């Protein structure tokens, strides 16, 4: 089945088997995500790609595209929720960007930039997590794992090895290695495996590859993730896109049914302090 | 002539790199001097912060004096800004959070290589260390955050010029960096 759906006022065509996020990405409309990856089975864990589809909340990476869907993605309330989700990811791990060799190439960091995340908002967990540097070619810094499951899926679905797994729940959740010792050196992973390269943060790193690209010349230093993630140039609503606009009245009605896109945002953001008259 | 806007700055558990970056606004300092004057800051050597319009806090909170200074700034500054990675998430000083405080002290003052006359410092003049380094927003309310290690001079300029003109500061996308 193929057809057209409407994302933030832009008519986006889709082809057979595409999810909303893939239809959007192919058309150049960026919906933030971390646990999704083109070519991988949908997983739906990070919730960053949450959108409103015909007024109902869904993850864009798991919901199949369907003809006539009205999708709201770039509304203030959804962007606000995405910022809060990203902040939670930062405080639950130990993400010190200045001391991370993935800085500038990190999807988590780039998504946070996209969300205009200037602070971490929540109290920090400073979780105690050990590093596994036992493998000669690959390093795991558990401090930076966001449990996106991409390495688990890559190892199982792409490499045919089943090296990784997620164990435990809640605060006790952790990435575990399928080896007799639990160490990476005793597992079947190889530096050529897709699982060694799929991590969206600096949790899984290939040794001796740091700083090959100097800071300032890394992926997201020159290009925002909204450009990098999309197949075509990024399209902003209202700009000439090559795709026709959808009916904005229908979009506005759909947004209104959900309390209006600004309602939550306006309720949670405090007014700016008044420098002239005190607070 | 309108009264000048008062700014106070301080470094808690930080390296003063953010202050260095602030000075990197270069000749714009002269323009800034037309409309602001400094209260407590490394430039003035004033010991306590008085009533101010803007307070810039660099560094995280690692000891009892940091808590005291931070609360003094909050009580005196209409607008308080967390400046840089250490103030926002603890930064590099927070890397000690993964070790016991006792182990840190023993390594630094007693068991470390090259330590002469080993002893844990103990003097009423010395502020007590907290068990963990904390970001400033966990101690007091913060109004604005300047990310970066350090934030670039342009970030300082964007924030200060906006606040001086009575605008809500916003950061252009290309200036948002955490490293």
UniProtKB/TrEMBL annotation, chain B:
<dbReference type="InterPro" id="IPR037024">
    <property type="entry name" value="NiFe_Hase_small_N_sf"/>
</dbReference>
<dbReference type="InterPro" id="IPR006137">
    <property type="entry name" value="NADH_UbQ_OxRdtase-like_20kDa"/>
</dbReference>
<protein>
    <submittedName>
        <fullName>NADP oxidoreductase</fullName>
    </submittedName>
</protein>
<dbReference type="InterPro" id="IPR051349">
    <property type="entry name" value="Hydrogenase_assoc-protein"/>
</dbReference>
<keyword id="KW-0408">Iron</keyword>
<keyword id="KW-0411">Iron-sulfur</keyword>
<dbReference type="Pfam" id="PF01058">
    <property type="entry name" value="Oxidored_q6"/>
</dbReference>
<feature type="domain" description="NADH:ubiquinone oxidoreductase-like 20kDa subunit">
    <location>
        <begin position="15"/>
        <end position="162"/>
    </location>
</feature>
<keyword id="KW-0479">Metal-binding</keyword>
<keyword id="KW-0560">Oxidoreductase</keyword>
<keyword id="KW-0003">3Fe-4S</keyword>
């Amino acid at each position: 089945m193929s057809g057209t759906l409407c994302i933030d006022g832009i008519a986006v065509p889709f082809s057979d088997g595409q999810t909303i996020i893939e239809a959007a990405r192919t058309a150049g409309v960026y919906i933030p995500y971390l646990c999704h990856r083109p070519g991988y089975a949908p997983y739906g864990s990070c919730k960053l790609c949450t959108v409103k589809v015909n007024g109902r909340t869904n993850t864009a990476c798991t919901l199949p595209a369907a003809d006539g869907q009205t999708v709201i993605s770039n509304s203030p309330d959804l962007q606000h929720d995405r910022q809060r989700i990203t902040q939670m990811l930062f405080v639950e791990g130990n993400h010190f960007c200045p001391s991370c060799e993935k800085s500038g190439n990190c999807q988590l960091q780039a998504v946070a930039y996209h969300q205009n995340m200037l602070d971490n908002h929540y109290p920090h967990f400073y979780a105690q997590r050990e590093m596994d540097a036992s493998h000669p070619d690959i390093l795991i810094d558990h401090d930076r794992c966001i449990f996106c499951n991409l390495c688990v899926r890559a190892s199982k679905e792409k490499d045919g090895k089943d090296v990784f797994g997620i164990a435990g729940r809640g605060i006790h959740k952790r990435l575990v290695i399928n080896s007799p010792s639990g160490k990476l050196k005793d597992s079947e992973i190889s530096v050529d495996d897709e699982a060694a390269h799929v991590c969206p943060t600096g949790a899984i790193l290939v040794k001796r590859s740091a700083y090959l690209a100097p800071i300032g010349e890394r992926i997201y230093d020159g290009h925002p993730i909204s450009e990098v993630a999309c197949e075509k140039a990024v399209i902003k609503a209202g700009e000439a896109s090559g795709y026709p606009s959808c009916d904005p009245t229908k979009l506005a009605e759909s947004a209104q049914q959900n309390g209006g896109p600004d309602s939550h945002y306006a309720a949670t953001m405090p007014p700016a302090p008044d420098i002239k008259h005190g607070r | 002539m309108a009264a000048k806007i008062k700014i106070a700055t301080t470094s808690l558990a930080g390296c003063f790199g953010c202050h260095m970056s602030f000075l990197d606004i270069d000749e714009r300092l002269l323009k800034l001097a037309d409309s602001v004057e400094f209260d407590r800051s490394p430039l003035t050597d004033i010991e306590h912060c008085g009533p101010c319009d803007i307070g810039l806090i660099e560094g995280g909170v690692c000891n009892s004096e940091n808590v005291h200074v931070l609360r003094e700034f909050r009580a005196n500054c209409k607008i308080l800004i967390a400046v840089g990675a250490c103030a926002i998430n603890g930064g590099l000083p927070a890397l000690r959070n993964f070790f016991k405080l006792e182990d840190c002290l023993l390594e630094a003052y007693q068991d470390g290589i090259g330590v002469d006359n080993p002893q844990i410092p103990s003097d009423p003049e010395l502020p007590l260390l907290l068990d963990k380094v904390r970001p400033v927003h966990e101690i007091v309310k913060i109004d604005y955050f300047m990310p970066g290690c350090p934030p670039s001079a342009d970030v300082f300029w964007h924030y200060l010029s906006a606040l001086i003109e009575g605008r809500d500061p916003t950061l252009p996308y290309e200036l948002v960096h955490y490293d």
